[in-house]
Predict the structure.
Amino acid sequence: MESGNNNNAVAEEVRAQADESSAVSEGRDNVLGIAEILTERDRLAKEKTELQELLQRRQAEFDNYRKRVERERGELLEFAAIDTIKALLPVLDDFERALKVESADKEYARGMEMIYQRLFEALKKLGLEPIPTETVFNPHIHHAVEMVDTKDQPDQTILEEYQRGYNFKGRLIRPAMVKVAVNA
């Protein structure tokens, strides 16, 4: 019976070694599995960071695009307004000339003056500003159509305004036509 017990003992030992080998193999597989999981985690973390950076760049690009479109839209509206204002300036000039003429009908003259004032105020609210001519001649805002040699006035003094000049929202849209004194 001893040989049966020996066989059993050998079989037990073989099974124990197989179990141990299996456990080592499983442990190795678990270590390899953990390493693969850690590698996958690192790859996914890197991909997440890249996607977040891409999203931030796209959001910044979109904000810049939106701001640029808003600015361009504002400029377009301003340029359209400038064209409209330029088209109305001759009407304003005609009103100014008509108001300088004496009229026998005071009601008519008063009505013309009221219409002129309302038109001028409406254009002023939009951003129209008359160029002052009570100053010294400035070639950037005045257009000298006549230069008079005189000793009565200082050099470069504006003597008369032929046509009023205008700025629109800080931009010159028409220079004032003036007569200028020069001392030769």
Summary: The longest strand covers residues 142-149. DSSP finds two helices and six strands in the chain.
